[in-house]
Automatic annotation (TrEMBL):
SUPFAM superfamilies, sorted: Family A G protein-coupled receptor-like
Name of the molecule in the record: OPN5 protein
Residue stretches making up the G-protein coupled receptors family 1 profile domain: 6-210
Taxonomic lineage of the native organism: Eukaryota, Metazoa, Chordata, Craniata, Vertebrata
Pfam families: 7tm_1
GO cellular component, one term: membrane
Transmembrane regions listed in the UniProt entry: 26-51, 63-86, 106-131, 154-179
Membrane-topology descriptor: Multi-pass membrane protein
PROSITE patterns from the UniProt entry: G_PROTEIN_RECEP_F1_2 (PS50262)
UniProt gene name: Opn5_1
Superkingdom assignment: Eukaryota
Length: 210
């Protein structure tokens, strides 16, 4: 309930001030869509199955649940990655270059994120990788047990782990470390105001970045 209410509030606010949204803020909206989609499509089944102490439904509902989880999960991860990259680019660019990130660019990026997520989500349905129950039997996801038992499962899980988890995570870490370093250097420069003619502007920009 809290997940649905919280993300619905974000979406309602975005609709209310849609004309005022800056391009990077569309990624926040996309993240809210992914999180709300996960809550609506997955949580009721998971909660009911947990109370039942066993998965409710058969193989079809299991595949559906795993598909939704993978789709929205990868979408959330890639959206967070895109947000980090854009923040890094804006932080390390001049104001003129920062304004080059247009709504069309972000919309294309969001479309790519969904297509990328959908591709990975449907791969197990077309023969690469598998979906199945989790060890406790009250939810479904990627069949992790196939990592050791099948070359097909091994290659899929390894590829998915690298391209949907490790690479985005490293990108996020690198971007925020870069932002932190930029903030650190700016603070060092502010220490000597006499050498900075636009100290007030720099301090204001630094505050916004922080």
């Amino acid at each position: 309930i809290l997940t649905i209410l919280g993300n619905s509030a974000v979406l309602a606010t975005a609709v209310k001030r849609s004309s005022l949204l800056k391009p990077p803020e569309l990624l926040t909206v996309n993240l809210a869509v992914a999180d709300a989609g996960m809550a609506l499509s997955m949580y009721p089944l998971a909660i009911a199955s947990a109370w039942n102490h066993a998965w409710l439904g058969g193989d079809t509902s299991c595949v559906y649940y795993a598909l939704m989880g993978f789709l929205f999960g990868v979408c959330s991860m890639m959206t967070l990655c895109a947000m980090a990259v854009i923040r890094f680019l804006v932080t390390n660019s001049s104001k003129a270059n920062g304004n080059k990130i247009t709504k069309n660019t972000v919309c294309i990026l969001i479309a790519f994120i969904w297509l990328y997520s959908l591709l990975w989500a449907i791969l197990p349905l077309v023969g690469w990788g598998y979906y199945g129950p989790e060890p406790f039997g009250i939810s479904c996801t990627i069949a992790w047990s196939k990592f050791h038992n099948s070359s097909n499962g091994f290659s899929f899980i390894l590829s998915m782990f690298l391209l949907c988890t490790v690479l985005p995570a490293l990108t996020i870490i690198a971007c925020y470390l870069g932002i932190a370093w930029k903030v650190h250097k700016a603070y060092q420069e502010i220490q000597n105001i006499d050498r900075i003619p636009n100290a007030a502007k720099l301090e204001k920009k630094l505050t916004l970045v922080s």
